[in-house]
Amino acid sequence: MGDRFGGPGAGGRGPSPHQPGACRAGAMTGPDDPLERRLLALAKERPDLREAVEAYRVTLPVLRDAAPIAAPVALDGKQVREKISRGEPVLGGCTLRFDRRASRELMLRLARGLFGAGVKGMSRIRRALEEDRLVPAELLRHAVKGNYPFVAKRAEAQVLAPALLWTLAQYALKPALRSWCREIAPLVRFAGAWERSDCYVCGAPASLCELQGNEQAGHLRCGQCGADWPTRRLRCIYCGNEDTESLGVLYPEGRRDSVRVEVCDACRGYFKVIATFAPSSPEELAIEDLSTLYLDGYAQGRGYRRPTA
Predict the structure, then answer these.
(1) CA Rg value for the chain
(2) Do 98 and 143 meet the contact criterion of CB atoms below 8 Å apart?
(3) Residues 6+ apart with CB under 8 A from 275
(4) Mean pLDDT by 10 residues, the chain (309 residues)
(5) pLDDT (0 to 100) of residue 192
């Protein structure tokens, strides 16, 4: 889910998941929920991730099944394409409106779930929400703009942990961001128009790269809104370097499977790459990002980094 309880981070019918720029809906619910099965398997494989897995177990289904919490952005295709041609994330500068009741309900459900999962400091935030000492719609309006100081000030006024409230707000933003992504994606014509490492919808850094389908075409994926946009192979997503002598691949522990790290010696950047037949849902993407944390550690231990967009 991107932030994993840290400090400030990045910001009608949906299209087919196989179209460029698509934003997929979540998977089925019920006792055989695939998210539950995948997370339980991950906790067994990686005991060191058990705490994060528990947090994901209580948040991912809530985010997947959340009712709408925000109004559509109502941009037309021309406006969207003009923004992209200028290199601007589509949501940048838009007036984004959140429903007060739905925002409160979602943020409170998340806080209660995380409190039940044992997240330290969440009890006080849960009580503040229950007693209406915080206004979730207000927090989300500022969180979507990356205004950490505002959220931190509201937290400090209630003697709450600022970083924890910020991360909760970032989680609560996801259903709105994904809804806007589903609205925007069908209006986009890529054809090389967006070759950045940050998301064309919300501006957040790409979580990872998927090699999709039989052709293994490269697609960057946003962990915040779920956006999907094409990227060229044998090219650094950060600096645009195409010199194959300074581009490389790392396989931790000698493993050559469906996941790896691609690195650039020109800018010392790295990004994670996974092979998948179909595009991952936003929830699956969050689990893939978590399950490949060892790749981040492996690359960072060799002096590579993920540049900020």
Answers:
(1) 19
(2) no
(3) 210, 211, 216, 258, 259
(4) 39 32 40 87 95 95 96 93 92 95 98 96 98 98 97 98 98 98 88 84 96 92 96 94 96 77 98 94 96 95 88
(5) 62
102 phi and psi, to 5 degrees? Answer: -65, -35
CA distances from 196 to 41, 44, 222 (A): 34, 36, 12
Question: What gap in Å lies between CA 235 and CA 242, rounded to an integer?
Answer: 5
Q: Over the chain, what HEC string results?
A: CCCCCCCCCCCCCCCCCCCCCCCCCCCCCCCCCHHHHHHHHHHHHCHHHHHHHHHHHHHHHHHHHCCCCECCCCCCHHHHHHHHHCCCCCCCCCCCCECHHHHHHHHHHHHHHHHHCCCCCHHHHHHHHHCCCCCHHHHHHHHCCCCHHHHHHHHHHCCCCHHHHHHHHHHHHHHHHHHHHHHHHHHCCCCCCCCCCECCCCCCEEEEEEEECCCCEEEEEECCCCCEEECCCCCCCCCCCCCHHHEEEECHHHCCCCEEEEEECCCCEEEEEEEECCCCCHHHHHHHHHHCHHHHHHHHCCCCECCCC
Its pTM stands at 0.86
